[in-house]
Structure formats: structure tokens, C-alpha cells
């Protein structure tokens, strides 16, 4: 914990973070509009929110929006590398005075260990004078998982003993979590059970987290209602597509400075992320070749003017290879072995196994770091490939991820989900829910002014003609946008 | 009926239609693939299909696909203007020999009257030796309506007497339908009741028709299951968007020959049709301004780089005004009165009331036809506007509508829906259903070869990793593409 | 000549032409601005202009601009097929009253014979009470050629005798011209010599005409100064590029109704015409492959995101083949024999020999007309290609050519060239000249308002800093735009 | 000079530079092709080249190409900030061994003083055992200027005495140069005169340098022939346009991380740089508004689909302001005072006076650095603007300038110009020349393979038909591409 404390004492860091937060606020009109709308009514008064989500500048604006709406908040990051220490420090110090920290407790530091990670996650669930938080705000589902596993452990009365690293069943994440559970069980054998009873719900940011929640619910194990923020239109169709359109070329540029114009770029996948990637590369004058397994997305790619091919058929033609699939083994060693010399290979999909990094390490290719997050791997025949961010998300590893404006649409959904769970809980029985379309539209609406958009309003007569409420929602749930 | 008979005797027409059909087949790979796949197994053997859908060249390929799969078919158009007489004649004559017409009975002629229209609709429901068809293929729902109203009339034992045109309740469509019902009731007072009992279901092409079906079902009046073809991804996201991208500039060009490049084009609505319209106009070098009532679509338009404004704020800046909304009164007389001289105004949305043509006629503006489907209306101050297709769909009125390839995706869904109703009926209880995603993907798949697309295949291992069937379907139902 | 007279008596034709002219005026702001600027000062007063240029609606606006500036005008078309009879009739009748034709004598009718063509060209050089015109406005150079050949014939004292069609040296164009010269020499053996002496210059529209002038001048035979209008920026960079961007997809659509989106389009040549063609096809969602012989243009195409390949390497992949080169034998029979079934082949370059139509006719491929200007040629293996406009310019043959706005930039250059020759002749000694950049900029300037462009003005201080005149010209002559 | 020596002793720097050079070689196919073609024949053998051009990684590849062709080279940077020390060190150490520096003497260090700058320039003109270099390779013309001023000073026999900084005539650049001249005159009063006599010519990279050369030649002062590399097509139409397309969004991203999509971007100027800037911003989903003083460029911008307006009319609508003009006072304090809060302002044109930074400093706006090269200036009303790179070239200041591939086209022209001056001097009499088109085409040709371009070749018959050499050059000199 000392690292965290060290950081929060660093006022220079906090000051730099405060600058970044101020600039980001300008670019997060959705969150600022929610402060404006709900600042007086304090809908989150009384709520204790445990947040687990990348501790960045944008998240700082989210956190301070939650507190501005009346909530008490504790925060951890959902990834050991993604914390921006200056943002963390600024949140701890708070928006008021630097001399007397009055902000939100943050348990996150860039480069924390896995063991620390689970300890920090435990810390956000620990509230003096209370059994725990009342709502969880989750990204990937680790905080939710810890509560559920805690309840299970308390029911079972024990936690499996630690494994040695050599043990084939050893999983560093599982060990980190069990370490925390073991200590909790020892100290207070009903803590998680009481805590779960006091939690009204969770709002989840990601596909992965939603997938976990769906599975828990299917198994009948879900302990409280969940809101799936990921599938709001203003999340999935904005963050995924327009975020990548921005951050993919940014990452490539910062990593390599190599011209994209006139080159051939291979994009694996034409979902929302792939659509944004292809658009960005074309916008830089590259010729994009798409691969797809889904015939509908493949047909879309073709109709949008892209060549659609298999990687093995074009592997010797492309200069850039970008994976966007969420699947594994998209780019394999045999592909890299057949690429042009100095082909650039990166991932903006999900996990680092989209590119077979493990296979590459085993392949005998010679590894030469070029600069942080940029590595050259040279094959026996002398040709090399340039791997960005070791196969992890290059837009985060080589650049700074999605810009604030795009995160504002995602995070406004998070805030609305938190309000729904706190003041409108009866609408969300045990299960996994999407936000009602009217809130999705509200999020969109709050971002229009900043872009100079003037919305047309339906007349009463027109609304009657269409059989729609005059002020929305305007579309059936299955509408695809 | 003499007009129809006159046409089918015209072998020159039929020959020209046959040429067009042959060229269209090349561009409708989805339908041709279904002929290939199901030609031997004849899944529609025994089915009697009553089709009501624009009688064009593309529809001819659809009809001949249905017969190639074993069905017996009778056809009418769903619009009094949309029939292409040469295609109709060719379908009647059939693909075999011209001397002995062996094709499908078609009851449709360009410019038929409303009364004829309902008589023709009645004719497709009349099958010698049977109570009626076994399946309906509908566009807009008129054939389905006639059956439902027939059953009601037979229950009631009478049809309301005809109204005079002067009567304020007079509706020419309703009168046309009642005229037919009255004759039927007189001749055979249980005909529609027996017919409905023999109909296994209907597949519906359009939003409007689906809306009617939903309402019937909500009222408990629906007599047989319905499949909503409109909301297949390969229909709504292809026909609507890519069809308009093609046919909007085509219509403007044929109507006016006016340069789009460098001009300002106002597009009302940013749904799928609006997206296609905006893309087409931008692709010609126009600067596009979009209007929207839905904040999500408005935000999409902005993120796609378009100005989003209200019509009243830009009415004096635009050179083209295109409506795509499905709503009414989008462009009103006060707007047209304020436009630049010779502004071009057209609709690709739905009904002609998107542009207030009735108001324009009452406004005192002077009407001057320029050429068929192109009219100039001059206001008192001397400026004029150019109205395309009298406010009706300009891509049909001034050009030839969507190209065959796009219709192939829509119509392949229709054929699959017909097969589902005929051989897999138990999956479709009374109600309004969408086609299963696996069929949507099948439709997409059948159009890939023609575009040179080579699809990637999931390995078993990858499919397991994703928890998906190896050959699809690949996405959850709420996926938005 | 009777055909022409027949036309001009047809008031319905004239009325239709007048409508078209009125609408075109709206789209030709450059010409209208010149009427506005020079209507009072009448700079062309006293000029007798012999014009030889496609007699279309746009040309009618040009002609009436010349007369509005004080000129007397006589007109012929420069192509036997390109006359729009209604426009011709309207020009003859004149803008005033229909009962008393008061317009400009026009000698042109759609489908005139070659012999008539040369007689009509002779007629525009024949001015009652004068030796001939004072200025020529030429397109392709035939009027200029006739004068030069006339002078030569008068010097020689004879014209070669007519050849029989069977004679290998027979050239129908040359025979047509000699027929006219022979008659003139007989009637007045010094007519062309006196005429040439009275001509102050010629302004030439096209690359081909400029090439002829350059050659005449190189041989020392040029009789009067010439202005090369073709190479004004506002001609070559606008007409060629933006005109084709408009009229190429228009021609393809009207000819075939085939979807371009998702298809592969091969464009031969990436000059200004090729650039416009590629942009238009991409704007419709096609994937464009370019071929080039010039490495600079090839590199531009690549940097603009197009695949650059040879036709033989992609001939079996493309759905559309468009030639834009000005060269011959671009698409040869061996290519067409290897294309996909029903590939569409057309030319927007120059002459019909870009596609080897003669070779195709000799190849044994079976010819089947589909509709006017659309022909199917079927090879022995059963696959066919669709040829547009028999290999001639498809944007003219299948659509209506460049739109008025684009022609307005070209024709404003023509009018300014005529004024320069008439009032500023000393600036143009014997030779072939381009218009000064200040006039090129003037043409551009006169088209800005219509597009809503507001130009920024240099301050005096800024102009001094740049060492430029405050109001232009702004660029050195070699600037490439 | 110690700084320079310090650097070259830093082997870690040199090693890092060598890595960068190796990667850049891959992206500079034009230079590598020249090594391949001329490596054996050594056309630059005997040449002593004095180079003054930004000492970057790309320049390192240029330098090592010159030596590979036989030249001896000495190098300085043409800008006190642009040196990349690692590249400089690597060039000094040479491609061979690190222990015994065997490379090219480089006199440049990032952040050198103005006085050092002129001393370094003097050093590249100083060759042991010779009167000076035989050729100059210049960027901006300072090396050439120094020689010309040296000759003048030697003629005059004196250099004006140094001025005090307070003197209104004081110019730090002029003082730096005179300091060097004074020392030279003292030591060797005919040094520059002898040196100039031995220089066969100069090749110049930039518009500014060419402008100086044109003026010298107009005044009759030019001492040796000059080749204008700037106006090769493969320089001005590639470096300017495609370079900025790449490096503008890169600079904005690294500086601000602010989303461009959906925002309004104002671009001053639509020359080649402006065209590239507008394309890049549109490619990121921004809506671009262009300003222009030249009506031809303004019309191009409109035809390319951009709004064209004056800054004062849109200053409160734009989120980004980018200058590309080469002019001064484009964005003035009154504009910045009227911008939206946190508008981002940057320059990619030329000098920092495109944005009135001096006026801003005087305006009373409060300056707050955000991070290096990113500054916030807050006006009295509370709104602020973000200035990138203090108004200097943001693509260099906030990112890394043009990518290697684009510089390869520029630098290949430089190498060819050096060869022309050394082996083909008789073709270049005293004056300022452009490279012959055949060399421009050669440069383009050498970049095609890397982009997968396969060039079509004219047949002899086609070349005859066009009247062109079969292998180029293909276009007249005035062709605009």
C-alpha cells in the first residue's frame, strides 16, 4: 500500500493530474451535463460505490461526477498497468485544496503486482462502519467476482490452500484472489455474505464482464441485479468504433512513424472495432484488406469498398496487420514467418493472444527491442516483423487509448446505470439488464451541443403519425443504428 | 383485366423482359444459389404462393426462383405504378417457349386503377380447385389485409355499402377493397373463412406491413403466423442503405443533370436510408447537412463528419433537399418558400407526404412541368423549386429503384421465409417472427462469391474459445452490425 | 440544309430548348457573371464569331453570352451526333419572341452527314457583306483547318479530285472538306485568303485542337494567333476531373442499372479524367484498381489508396473496365476474352479506339444489342461482355455528358479568350498562347458565389510580405494546383 | 564545438541512431535504389558536398547515399532545433565500426545557438587541402548565402561591425553570419572568392531557398547554377501533401489527445499542404472548413466537398485551427479572443508568424504551459486557447515530421540533382533550373515496388500513336498532375 500512499503525497503529481482533469472535463460533456442536471437533487446520496475501472484521467472525471451526485466512492483500477498516477493522485487530493486531501480513496498505482491488485480490489469493498458498498461499478467483473467468491468461500467455510508456481494448476490471478479471501475468512467469516446482502446491484462496462454475469445468472448464482452498460448504443457503437478510429493510427504513429498512405493494411475483423480501424487506415490513404468469419460482416466490408480475404492469401502483400476480433490465434507464427520484411503487427481487439506471441517466442525468431512497446523479431531467413505492445492493446500501449469525448459517452451510461440501481431498483429484478433506450438517447443528447448539433423536434402531429412519444424513445429495441 | 391480357400477348414485350431477367439473374446470386441448393429437393412442392410485390425484373427472378423450388405461384403488384410490363409479360410467358405461355399468372399492369388493383389482389387468392393459397408473400400487407377483412365480412355477413366520392369518409383504397369483398360475399359467403384456414403463414417485406401485422397480433386478430423479412440484417442494412446509395444520385441525375459536386445537400433523417443517401452525396463531392430527431442517430451523423442542423436554419443554403424519414411534413411550404432559386426537392423515404405536396398545390405557387416526374413550382417572389416525382420515391420515379444485387439479398430472405413456413412451420407459432440469424447469415454467404470475398473459417479451437458454433450463427440477437 | 430549316420552324422544339436553357443559365454562373460585367460595355461589339462546338444546351448559353457582349455569331456543331436539336432551335429562335426568329444562325442537326457537316462549317465562315468572321471559336480545330486548307488551295489554285470510297486513300472527312473547298474555289478563288487576313485569332477548346495548332505553328503555317483554352486550370482541372466524377456513374447507371458498390472497377489511366473516375466509383462503394504508364501518376494513385496493377493481372477480377487514357488499344480482345461473365466495359477517354472495338468485331464474338448504346458480345466459351456506347464516350452516349456548372468554367474561359483576341490582341502575337492566370482566376471567382464560397482577401501587408499583387494572380505559372 | 564532439563520443546515442537508420532505410526505397543503381559507377567520385539540411534519421540515409555514390560529405543542420542527436552521432560514427569513427563529419546538435549555427555552416565549407566544397546541398539557402556574402565581403574588404542587441537594426541571424565572415576575412581575405570559383552548383530543397536564388539571379548576383528540387512533382506534390496528411493528425494527437471526429476543423489555405491537412482531418471524421485567398484553390476546395469561409465568419464554430499558408497574420489575436473555450490552434505552414504569437504575448492573455510544446493562453473573459509548438510547425514540434517514405521522394530528387551538377553540368548554365521530367519520373519509379505497384508499359505502337517516347517522359512541362 505504501506505493499508493507515496503517490498521494506527491503534490506535483496531483497538480499535473488536476490540469489533465480540467482539460478532460471540457471533452466530457455527458458527465458535465449529469453534474448540471443532478447536482442539486443528489440522486446518489447515501450510495456507497465501489469502482473497479482503469484509473485514468477520464475515470477521474467519472469519479468526481459520482461524488458530485452525492455518492461516496472508493476506487481501484481493473488492470495493473493502466493507472495514470497523476490522475490517481489528483482524485485522492480532491478538487478542493491540495493541503488537506479531501478526495476519493484510490487504490491503484501503475505497475502494481497481481497480489496488490486483489488487495486493492478488497480495499474498495471495505467501508468503515458498513458491511460494504451498496453498488459496484465494474469493468471486467473482478470486484463482482470477489464478492461472489467470498460468499461461496464463507458458505464452504474454507479457501483452497495456495499452489506453488510450478503446479500446473497454478494461476497467478486465482492465487491473488484466494490470498485475499483467505485473510477475510479468517478475520470475519460472514463478511462477504453480509456485504452481498447490502449490494443493490452492479453496472458492468465490458463484453467480458457481461459474459461472466450472463453465465453466473444462467447458473443461478447471481446475487444481485446487473446492468449491462456495454450494450448501450452510445457505448458499443461509439467507444468501439470512433474510439479506435482515433487511437489506432495514433498508436501506430507513436510506435513507428511509418507512413500508412499508399500501404496495404490488413484488418482482422469487421465488427465495430474493425469498422473504426478500417476507416482510420483508409482515411490515411492506406488500402485496407479485411478478414471476417461472419458472412454478414464480410458482406458489409465488401459493400463498404474493402477487399475481403483470408490472411494466408494476402500475408505477403500487407505492410500492417491489425487484429480486432476478440478471438485468439488470428496471427500465427506461420503468418509472421511469411510476411514482408519489417511488417508491422499490432492488436486492438482484446487479449494479447490475438497474435500468437507465445508461439513467436518459441519459434526461434530473434528478439530485439527497438523502444518501449516496439519490438523487432527477426526470422532465420533474415526478415523481421515489428510487434507493437507485445501483442497487447496497441492503442493503450503505444498511445493513450480512447479520447475523453468517447469515454464521456461510455461513462455517462455508467452514471445513469448507477442512478437507476439506486433510485429505480424495482425496474431491475435479479438478472442482467440493458439500460432503457430513453437513457441511451439521453446520453447521446448530452453530447450534441459540444459538436454543434441542433436536434430537430417532432411536432405532436408527427409523433402521433408515427405512433411514437414526442420526445423519444424513437426506435424499437431491435433497431440496429 | 383486358389490359393484362393484352400485355401477355405481346411477345416483343416478353422478349425484352426475358433479356432483362437474364441480365438480372447474373446480379442476383442469392436467388440463384437457392435454385442451386434446393432445385433438386423441391422444398416448396405443394405450396400455393400468392405474391403481392412490385412486379419488376428483380421480382421476376424471385418468382422464377419460387417455381424452381416447386411452388405454384400467382402474382400481383403491390403498387399501381411500379409494374414493369416487360418483366410481367416475360413471367407470364415463362422461361420456356414463347409460343405456348407456360409461366406464372401475373395480374399487374403499369398504371392500373385502384379498383383494378384490388381485383388483381383478389385474383392471386383465387386458385382453381382449392380454397386459396397456402402461403402469402406480401409487401405492405394488402393481400393479408384482404384475407383478414374477408373473414370479418363473412362473420358479419355483410360489407358496408359504397360511399360517394363527396362523402368525407370516402377513401378510394377502402372502396376498392370493399368492392371486391362485396362481390365475394355474394358469390361464396364462406370463401375467405375457408381460405384463411388453409393459409399456413405470410412473409412480409416492409416496415409498414410488419407494423400492420404487429397491430393485428396485438389486437388478437392475426389469423396465421407471419415472418418479418424486413428486419433481417441482410434486408434492412443492405437494401435500405446500399440500395439508396446507388439509386439516389441516379434519380437526381436522370431528373435534372445538375452537378452535385461542390453543392450543399440537405438530408432529412440519418437512419439506414439517410446513411446511404449522405454517403452517396458526399461521394459525389457534395457537402451534406443532416437533420435528425433521434439524438443517437444525430450523434452518429456528427461523428461521421456531417453537419447536423434543423431545416429552418439551413433552408437558404442548400441546393438539394432529400427526405428519408418515413415521417410526414418534413419539408413544408414555408421551407420551399424560403429556398434558393431552383433548389431541387425529392423524397426517398416512404410516402409522398414527407414533402407537403398538398400544401404546395394550395400555396398559389405556379406549376410548370419540365419533363415527366420533374416539375417546377414558382413562388410569387419569382424563385422556384424543382420537385422530383411529385414527392413520391424519386429513386423509383426518376430512376429504376434499387439494383438487382441489393434486391437479391432482400428476396433471398423472402424465399427462405417461404421455405420456413412450408417445411418448418412448428417453429413459428401464431405471431410475428424474425428469421433465425443462421438464415440471415446464409443469405449474406450466398452473395460473397460474386464480390470476390473469401471468408475466413473459425478453427474448432477458436470456436470453443469464443463459445460459438464453428459455422455460425456468430452473433447474439441484439448485435447491431 | 433543309433539316436545319425544318428544325428551326419547330416551335415546340424551340420552346423545350428554351426551358432547358433557362435552367442551365442557373447552373452557369460564370457565363451569367460575364453578361453582368460586360453587358453594358459590349466588348465584343463589331466582332463576327464563327463557332464550331457541340450544339448543346450549355453551348446555347455560351452563344447567347457572346451576343449579349455585342458579338455577331454563327454556329455549327463540331460533331455529327452531339447536337441537341431543341437547344439549336431555341438559339435560332432567340431569347425574344417565338414568332419572329431573331436569334443566331445555327447549322447543326443531330445525325447530320459528314458532307453536311463540312457544308455547315463552311456556312459559319460565310458572312454577308464581309469576307468572313473576325474570330473563330473552335473545338477540335475543324473550322480553323478549313480556313488554312482554303488558303492553301487558293495558293495552289486547285483541290485534288474526289476519290472513290474503294480507294485505299479515301477518307470520308477529307472528302467532305475538299468538296466544300472545291466549290468555294470555283466560286471565289481568293475567298479564304481574304477571310484569313480578316481573322484576328482563334480560341481552341480541346487537347486535340491545341495539338493541331502547335503543329501548324511549328511548321510555320499558322495564319493567326491562337489561345489554348484547354490548359486553363479552370478548364482542365475542373471539366476533366469533376465533370467525369459526375457523368461516369451516371452513364453506367443509365446503361446498366448494375450496382457498383462492393464491386471491383478497373480504371485505365490516372490523369485528371482517371482521378475523377476513380473518385466517383469509390464514392459508390466500388473497389478501384488503376493502371498507369506514368510512374508519377501511378505513385499518386497508390498514395490515394488505390491498387495499381496491369490489366492482364486483374482482368478476371474486375466487374467494370473504364478507359480514361487518350491512348489506343487499352482494352484488347484478349482482355475481353478473359473477363468475368457480363463484365461492363466503357470509355470516357477520347476516341473509341481505347477499346479495340474493331478487333472485337473481328473476333467471332456474337453481338447482341441490349438497348441503344448497350451491347452484349458473347465469346465462344459462353461468357459475354457488355460494351457501352460502342466504345465511344459513355458519359455522352449513355448519359448527357458534363453538367452545366462544369461547362460554365470551360466556357467562361472561351468568352474571355474571345474578348482578349478582340480587345487585347497586341498581347497575343502569332503563336499558341494560354490565357493569363489572372483570367483563369477570374473564371474561378465567378463560380464561387453559386457554391456559397466566401473568399478571404489578402491585406496589403500580407500581399507585400508574399511579394504578390493583393488581388492576384497568386501563383507562378508552373504551379500545379 | 564541444557539444558536437561530446555527442559523437556517445556510442549509445550512435547505436540508437544506427537502429533508426536501419529501419528508415526500409522506408526510403528511392535512396536505396540509387545506391543499387550507382553504387558501382560512383558518379559522385571526386565531389565534395557541403550539406545544410535538418540532421534527422532520414537525412542520415541521404548522407550515406551520397557517400555510397562516391562523394565526400560534410554536414550541418539548417535549423537549430531540428537535429536528432542520435542520427547525427550515428552518421559520424559511420556504418562500419563504432570504435573507429569513419563516417561523415556532422556539425549539428539539437538546441545549438545561432552563433554556433553559423560556425557550423562555416565548417561544412571548410575542406582540408581544398578551397571548399564542389557542390552545395541546401535547405533554405543559408550555406549558399554564406558563400555569396563571403565573396561580397572579400570584394568590399570589410564586414560591418557588430551591433548591440538594443540597436533597432540588430538581427541575430545577420550578426551570427557576420561574426563568421569577419573571422574568415581576417584569416584569409580571398577564401570565399576561391571557394565560389570551385563550386559547380547548388541543389535547393525549399520554396524559401528557391525564392532567394531567383532573386539573386534576377539581380545578376548568382555565382553558380542552381537546381530547384522543391518543384519536382515528386517533391511538392508528395512531401507537401502526403507528408502533412500523415504528420498533422499525429502532431495533434501527441499534443492533446483530443478527439477530432465530429469536431469542426478550420484549415487556412488549400495548397498542397492544405489539401493534405483537410484530407487527414476528414479521414478522422472531422468536418473541415477551408479558407482561401486564391479563387482557383477555393473552387477546388468547394468541389472537393469542403465549406469555404472566412475565419471571422466561423471563428466561434471551430474546434481546431490549422494554418497552412506560408503567409503571416492568418490567425490574429482578435480571432483567438473570439474562439470557443479550449480551441486548439496550430501551424503546419511555414514560419511561426502565421499565428500572431507576438500579438498574443502582448494581449494580456495569461500563459500556462501544459506540457512541452503545448500551452494554454487564457483571455480575460475566462476562455482559453491551446497553442501547439508556440506557433511553429506542429508536425515537427509535437510529432516527428514527415515519415521516411515521403522524405525518400524528396531526397532522391536531391541525389539526382547532385549527380546532374557533377556529371552533366553543361545542361545547367548559370540560372535556377528544375530537374528534367525524366528524373522526376525516375524518382517516382523507384518508389513503386515498395507499394506493390506494377506499372503498365506503352507498346511501341501506342507510344507512336501518342507521339511520346516509349519509356517517358510522358507529360508536357506544364502538366499539373
Automatic annotation (TrEMBL), chains A, B, C, D:
Root EC class: hydrolase
Name the UniProt record assigns to this protein: Adenosylhomocysteinase
A GO molecular function held by the record: adenosylhomocysteinase activity
Catalysed reactions, as listed in the record: S-adenosyl-L-homocysteine + H2O = L-homocysteine + adenosine
GO terms under cellular component: cytosol
Chief place of localization: cytoplasm
Gene Ontology biological process terms in this record: L-homocysteine biosynthetic process; one-carbon metabolic process; S-adenosylmethionine cycle
Keywords, comma-separated and alphabetical: Cytoplasm, Hydrolase, NAD, One-carbon metabolism
The encoding gene: ahcY_2
Pathway assignment: Amino-acid biosynthesis; L-homocysteine biosynthesis; L-homocysteine from S-adenosyl-L-homocysteine: step 1/1
Binding note for cofactor: Binds 1 NAD(+) per subunit.
Cellular localisation: Cytoplasm
S-adenosyl-L-homocysteine hydrolase NAD binding domain location: 240-401
Cofactor: NAD(+)
Annotated residues for binding of NAD(+): 206-208, 240, 269-276, 292, 327, 395, 402
Native species: Demequina activiva
Binding sites annotated in the UniProt record for substrate: 56, 139, 205, 235, 239
Top-level division of the source organism's lineage: Bacteria
Cross-referenced SMART domains: AdoHcyase (SM00996), AdoHcyase_NAD (SM00997)
Family to which this protein belongs: Belongs to the adenosylhomocysteinase family.
EC code: 3.13.2.1
Protein function: May play a key role in the regulation of the intracellular concentration of adenosylhomocysteine.
HAMAP family registered for this protein in UniProt: AdoHcyase (MF_00563)
Pfam family, one: AdoHcyase_NAD
Amino acid at each position: 500500500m505504501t506505493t499508493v500512499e507515496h503517490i498521494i503525497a506527491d503534490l506535483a503529481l496531483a497538480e499535473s493530474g488536476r490540469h489533465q482533469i480540467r482539460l478532460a472535463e471540457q471533452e466530457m460533456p455527458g458527465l458535465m451535463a449529469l453534474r448540471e442536471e443532478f447536482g442539486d437533487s443528489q440522486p446518489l446520496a447515501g450510495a456507497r460505490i465501489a469502482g473497479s475501472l482503469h484509473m485514468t484521467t477520464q475515470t477521474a472525471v467519472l469519479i468526481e461526477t459520482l461524488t458530485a451526485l452525492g455518492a461516496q466512492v472508493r476506487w481501484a483500477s481493473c488492470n495493473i498497468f493502466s493507472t495514470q498516477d497523476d490522475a490517481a493522485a489528483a482524485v485522492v487530493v480532491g478538487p478542493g485544496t491540495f493541503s488537506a486531501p479531501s478526495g476519493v480513496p484510490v487504490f491503484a498505482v501503475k505497475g502494481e503486482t497481481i497480489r496488490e491488485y486483489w488487495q486493492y480490489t478488497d480495499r474498495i469493498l471495505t467501508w468503515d462502519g458498513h458491511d460494504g458498498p451498496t453498488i459496484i461499478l465494474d469493468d471486467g467483473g473482478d470486484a463482482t467476482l470477489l464478492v461472489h467468491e467470498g460468499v461461496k468461500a464463507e458458505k464452504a467455510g474454507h479457501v483452497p490452500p495456495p499452489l506453488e508456481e510450478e503446479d500446473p494448476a497454478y494461476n497467478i490471478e486465482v492465487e491473488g484472489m484466494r490470498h485475499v479471501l483467505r485473510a477475510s475468512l479468517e478475520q470475519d467469516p460472514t463478511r462477504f455474505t453480509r456485504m452481498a446482502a447490502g449490494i443493490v446491484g452492479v453496472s458492468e462496462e465490458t463484453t467480458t464482464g457481461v459474459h461472466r454475469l450472463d453465465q453466473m445468472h444462467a447458473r443461478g448464482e447471481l446475487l444481485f441485479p446487473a446492468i449491462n452498460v456495454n450494450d448501450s448504443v452510445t457505448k458499443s457503437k461509439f467507444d468501439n468504433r470512433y474510439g479506435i478510429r482515433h487511437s489506432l493510427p495514433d498508436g501506430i504513429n507513436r510506435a513507428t512513424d511509418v507512413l500508412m498512405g499508399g500501404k496495404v493494411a490488413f484488418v482482422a475483423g469487421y465488427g465495430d472495432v474493425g469498422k473504426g480501424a478500417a476507416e482510420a487506415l483508409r482515411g490515411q490513404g492506406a488500402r485496407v484488406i479485411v478478414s471476417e468469419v461472419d458472412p454478414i460482416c464480410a458482406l458489409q466490408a465488401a459493400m463498404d469498398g474493402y477487399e475481403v480475404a483470408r490472411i494466408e492469401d494476402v500475408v505477403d502483400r500487407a505492410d500492417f496487420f491489425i487484429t480486432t476480433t476478440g478471438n485468439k490465434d488470428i496471427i500465427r507464427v506461420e503468418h509472421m514467418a511469411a510476411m514482408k520484411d519489417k511488417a508491422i503487427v499490432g492488436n486492438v481487439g482484446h487479449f494479447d493472444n490475438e497474435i500468437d506471441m507465445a508461439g513467436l517466442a518459441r519459434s526461434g525468431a530473434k528478439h530485439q527491442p527497438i523502444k518501449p512497446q516496439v519490438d523487432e523479431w527477426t526470422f532465420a531467413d533474415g526478415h523481421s516483423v515489428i510487434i507493437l505492445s507485445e501483442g497487447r492493446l496497441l492503442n493503450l500501449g503505444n498511445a493513450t487509448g480512447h479520447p475523453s469525448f468517447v469515454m464521456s459517452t461510455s461513462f455517462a451510461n455508467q452514471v445513469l446505470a448507477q442512478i437507476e440501481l439506486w433510485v429505480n431498483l424495482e425496474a431491475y429484478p435479479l438478472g442482467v439488464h440493458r439500460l432503457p433506450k430513453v437513457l441511451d438517447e439521453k446520453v447521446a443528447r448530452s453530447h450534441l451541443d459540444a459538436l454543434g448539433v441542433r436536434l430537430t423536434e417532432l411536432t405532436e402531429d408527427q409523433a402521433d403519425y408515427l405512433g411514437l412519444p414526442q420526445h423519444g424513445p424513437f426506435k424499437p429495441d431491435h433497431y440496429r443504428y
